Amino acid sequence: MRIIPHFSAEGLSNVYLIVDDDGNGIIIDPGQVDREILEFIEHFCTRLAAVLITHRHESHTAGLGTLLKIYDVDVYAYGKSIGSIETIQFSDGETKRIGNIDVKALLVPGHSMDSLVYSIDGAIFTGDTISSGSVAMTDSFVEKELLIKSLEEKVMTLDDNTLIFPGHGAPSKIRIEKMLNQDMLESEASTTGKAYRVH
Question: How far is the CA of 82 from the CAs of 57, 86, 143, 177, in angstroms?
Answer without folding.
Answer: 9, 6, 22, 31
